[in-house]
Design a protein that fits this description.
Elements lengths: L13 E7 L12 E4 L2 E3 L4 E7 L2 E10 L3 E11 L4 E7 L9 E3 L8 H23 L1
Parallel strand pairs: 1-7
Antiparallel strand pairs: 1-4, 2-3, 2-5, 5-6, 7-8
Length: 133
Amino acid sequence: MSAQPGPPPPAPTGWIRLTVQGNALTSNMIHPSVRLNGYPVPTPYGVSVHPVPPGPWRVDVHCQWLRQYGQADLTVDVAEGRTVDVFYAPPWHQFAGGRIGLERQPRSGFGLFLVMMLVALAVVVGAIVLSVT
């Protein structure tokens, strides 16, 4: 009797652990869009783990509101059986770029965000003062 062949061995695998910093209240109600080597992958805020074949992988991320913003990309080399940590920080507003790297990233655009909030506050306070007088 001949031995039947067994199932093929599993394909070698590595992982990309992507951390999207922030949340729907501090960034955007719509989750950032993520592509791995051009293929879209669902990614919420927080940590998500994506199994990938070993080799070089390009991670592209952007946010969407009225237009795309916060674009950032990074190429990582995933070794068999290893996990590569990638961190993406969306910007504070849609006029700044996102940041991506192998460690936690600071969010860009805080200065302009602060100026915009102070101007909005000044307009509201000015309207209240003018309506009272």
